[in-house]
Write a structure and sequence with these properties.
Blueprint: H1 7-60, E1 71-74, H2 82-90, E2 96-98, E3 104-110, E4 119-124, H3 131-176, H4 195-243, H5 250-277, E5 287-290, H6 291-302, E6 311-316, E7 322-325, H7 327-344, E8 348-355, E9 358-363, H8 368-373, H9 392-403, E10 405-412, E11 415-422
Parallel strand pairs: 6-8
Antiparallel strand pairs: 1-4, 2-3, 3-4, 5-7, 8-9, 9-11, 10-11
Helix pairs in contact: 1-3, 4-5, 5-7, 6-7, 7-9
Length: about 425
Amino acid sequence: MSHPVHRLRRRLMLAFSGFALLVATVFGLYALAFMYVVEDSVFNAALQREAQRQLAAHAAQGWVTPLDPSMRVYRDPADLPADMRATFQREPWRSEFPGSDGRHYHVHRLLPAAPASPAWLVAEVSGQLVVRPIRDHVVMVLLVSGAAMVLLAVLLGGWMARRSTRSLYRLVDQVEGLSARYLPPDLSKDFENDEIGVLARALDRLSARITDFVEREHAFTRDASHELRTPLAVISSAAGQLLGEDGLSTRGRQHLQHIRLSALQLQQAVVTLLALAREDDQAQAAVPCRLAPLLERVIVDYAPLLEERPVQVRMEVGEDATLRAEESALQLVLANLVGNAFAHTRDGHVQLCMRGPALVIRNSADASEILQRWPRPRPFDKGADSQGDGLGLSIVRRLCDQQGLSLDIHAEPGSTVAVLGNHAPGNA
């Protein structure tokens, strides 16, 4: 039994770690932005105070020297520091400009009363910056903290995932161990009254319904086969005895052959139902079965289908040719394949031969209708000229799957070809 892949646990752990990483990243960016905003607010407040002082002094005596030595008043934009002048001319609305050699400028526009011209109060604050010197250290602290939070989230997510999915995976293990022969009556007894318990109780109800259905099917199959075998055997035997009577007309002999063949097909259908009703694939181990005796028996049984048809049957199967399968099931598969080949061949040939370890059944018939339904034929889906009930190919496919047989039906020039063999080891 293969263990399930714990994708749900992994998803929960990834969700926790992803959320922790997102939170750490967002709050780290917020922290950096907050530091820069606070620093700029300090500089802007100092500029605002100095601007009020300059405007008050200008009304009395003109611009004066700022109290802060890092500040300076410029009356003409052309006199601004060279490393910020070009940027200022392109974007005069900005209040913060980077300079060269680590310099950094904050600018406040002074608007005195008319008709005086405006001026610009510029502060070179590189010596007063607080965030820039510690930025790398802060980023490193944030990265380490974020990694620690992600690791904690992974551990916490793993713990919560295991705790929250423990009962679910216990139910998965129990469900994976179910088989057609073993359906436990009470899966929900070990689960609490939560979502998993509700699911377990629903599985209990489904298991009970399946058990009842299987029991009814087995009872019906057993009873039907018991009731049908005896009258079918009587019909087949009586038809065979009548065929040996003298004085039968050709028409009467044909009818008796049809009655005998129909009884044979019904007997085969009963055996097929019993084979398909088996739920345990290991009921009988597959052993090598000789093909020649089975094919000879099938050819004799279905020979009436070829009466009055110009069809030649050639069997080139050696006495040592075998396939691994349960003998009764293999006979059913061969009966369906050979019967179909006989029924659909109006003239030409039906050839049975070995191609390596596989049996090849080739008949000179049109394969178009069969290939439309192959490789997954549906029950009761049959060709326009078929006299059957459309179950043959579906039954053959199911029996092959059950017995580990491979079957390929394809067209070759002028022929329909069925290749029956055993699955290679590991490819069943």
